[in-house]
């Protein structure tokens, strides 16, 4: 299974993305989700195959979700992940001397 997907980013939540079939665009995305997501901003289109490597998602799962429900929602990583990857000097910047 492969399909051309359109990827949209949320203006409300950093690193939140919607993957949809390019032919359907946002037609199959529920209104409630679009309301919470905000006005989707098109980022790019790509050919998605089960073999394709994605940075934070499993391509097979994305394809299955698009097939079954019409979209795949990529949630942002937990806030803790941002802090854990900061250099120690930034983490200690506000520490008392």
UniProtKB/TrEMBL annotation:
InterPro entries, A to Z: YcgL_dom (IPR027354)
Domain of life, per lineage: Bacteria
The YcgL domain, residue ranges: 3-87
HAMAP family reported in the protein's UniProt record: UPF0745 (MF_01866)
Name of the protein in question: YcgL domain-containing protein KRX52_01245
Species for this entry: Geopseudomonas aromaticivorans
């Amino acid at each position: 299974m492969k399909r051309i997907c359109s990827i949209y980013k949320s203006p409300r939540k950093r690193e939140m993305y919607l993957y949809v079939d390019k032919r359907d665009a946002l037609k199959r995305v529920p209104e409630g989700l679009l309301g919470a997501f905000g006005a989707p901003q098109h980022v790019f289109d790509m050919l998605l195959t089960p073999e394709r490597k994605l940075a934070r998602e499993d391509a097979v799962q994305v394809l299955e979700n698009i097939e079954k429900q019409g979209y795949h929602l990529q949630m942002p990583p937990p806030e803790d992940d941002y802090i854990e990857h900061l250099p120690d000097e930034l983490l200690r910047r506000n520490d008392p001397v």
